[in-house]
Amino acid sequence: MESKIEVLIIGAGLSGLTAALHFLKSGFPVTMVEKSSYPHHKVCGEYLSNEVIPYLEWLGIDLNLLSPVSIDKFQFSTNDGQLLQATLPLGGLGISRYALDHFLFQEAIARGCHIIQDTVVDLIFNEDLFLVKMANHDPITAKIVIGAYGKRDGLDQKLSRSFIQKKSPWLAIKAHYDGSFPDDLVGLHNFEGGYCGVSKVEKDRINICYLVDYATFKKYKSIPEHRLQVLYKNPHLRRIFETSKPLFDQPLTIGQISFEKKTVIENHVLMIGDTAGLIHPFCGNGMAMAIHSAKICASSVIAYLEGGLLSRSKLEKQYRTSWNQNFLSRITAGKIMSGILRKKQLTSKFMRILIKYPFLLSMMIKQTHGKPIIP
User: Fold this and answer.
1) Contacts (Cβ under 8 Å, ≥6 apart) of 70
2) Does the residue 103 lie in any domain?
3) Using only C-alpha atoms, what is the Rg of the chain?
4) CATH of residue 265
5) What is the number of structural domains in the chain?
6) What is the value of pTM for the model shown?
7) What are the tens digits of pLDDT across the range 218-236?
8) How far apart are the C-alpha atoms of 19 and 25, rounded to whole Å?
9) More confident residue, 331 or 319
10) Cα separations in angstroms, 173 against 17, 22, 237, 311
11) Are residues 291 and 344 in the same domain?
12) How far is 72 from 183, CA to CA, in rounded Å?
């Protein structure tokens, strides 16, 4: 039998769970559909900028309960080992998605969120309502649907999103390690065809996550061989890997990561987090952007449900404008910087400029990070 609800969120990841907590705090019931069970690891750099801490505190979320690592230094190296260091303007926390997402998931349930473990297979918008069809449950009719299902999903095909039609060259690989690495440092190390982020998370674990061009990767038979032949050419990466012990049986991987421009609203579905737009991982700001986008979306929807925005078109216009104001320039800056790092000659020139004018590195970091989010 078909049930009717006001707010449905598809995807219980970082952005979806944050949005749910915002609605619940504001007195609005919310239903979530999530295909995976918790807890589980995700491919992610696992650095969370402090810009979101005031907002999380407003939501009643105390991340200190998860014993995160405090990080305030940034280190960047080129493939040949040239090294630059900077202080992060706001700093951040090293915290795994395994711990953070599970914590938020439990909080959402404790606060009354209704969670359905299933896969959404179709969305139909008609007469100002959504009909949401799932693989194993009866359909749901919803007034508002928020897409928070991640970087790439079969639902993108159903919605005919333009980016899904284009093949992406990117492959991401991530694992946790036991070894020696400074608690207060996040490192970004360049190699041919990609770059690798290294930082601590809770329980003294090192998170190593890297993005590689698939055309470069496929020349090698396996992840270990590619690492040995390509990543090890950067002496800093070689030292880190050689002095660390993997804690996963196998690294996690995700392919077809797209940095193409995405639509923030598709067929009246409001997109948040990576579903709305993806900043290059080397910027280290994806987690904070996911949380911030959830706040912007939830605030706009609440204004609409309370009558402050008199039409769906005004709701969509306000959300699209707010999203672009907060994130578009940061995503563009990330894309430009990533393009430079992918080209050897440009990277060398880039490094010479940064060595001569080190303040430019801090300016670059600020370009891809936001200001503290005031609730």
Assistant:
1) 91, 93, 94, 183, 184
2) yes
3) 21
4) 3.50.50.60
5) 2
6) 0.93
7) 999 899 999 999 999 999 9
8) 10
9) 319
10) 24, 32, 14, 43
11) yes
12) 9
Domain check: are 229 and 267 in the same one? Answer: no
C-beta of residue 47 within 8 angstroms of C-beta of residue 188:
no
The yes-or-no verdict on residue 267 having pLDDT over 80 is yes
Contacts of residue 202, defined as CB under 8 A and 6 or more positions apart, other chains included, come to 66, 67, 68, 69, 94, 95, 96, 99
- Where on the phi/psi map is residue 138: left (φ > 0), alpha (ψ -120 to 50), or beta? beta
246 and 265 co-located in one domain: no
User: Which of 256, 280, 307 is the last residue in one of the domains?
Assistant: 256
The reply to whether 238 and 281 lie within a common domain is no
Q: Tell me: do 16 and 154 sit in the same domain.
A: yes
| Domain assignment present for 80 | no
CA dihedral 332, 334, 337, 340 (to 10 degrees): -80
Same structural domain for residues 341 and 360? yes
- Which residue, of 230, 256, 282, is where some domain finishes? 256
148-176 per-position pLDDT tens digit: 998 888 898 888 888 888 888 889 999 99
Q: How far are the Cα atoms of 31, 51, 293, 306 from residue 319, in angstroms, in the given order?
A: 21, 20, 9, 16
Flag whether pLDDT at 368 surpasses 80. no
Instruction: Copy the structure tokens of residue 185.
Output: 């440092």
> How confident is the model over 1-30, as pLDDT tens digits?
556 789 999 999 999 999 999 999 999 999
Contact 271, 159 (CB under 8 A): no
Among residues 81, 87, 170, which one has the least CA distance to residue 348? 81
- On average, the pLDDT of the chain sits at 90
Within the chain, where are the H helices? 14-25, 53-58, 97-110, 154-158, 214-217, 223-229, 235-242, 286-305, 312-323, 329-341, 344-356, 359-367
* 320 within domain boundaries: yes
Whether residues 229 and 328 fall in one domain:
no
Range of the domain at 343: 3-65+92-167+257-367
Residues 264 and 283 in one domain: yes
**Does residue 305 lie within any of the structural domains?**
yes
Which whole number is the average pLDDT over 63-74? 96
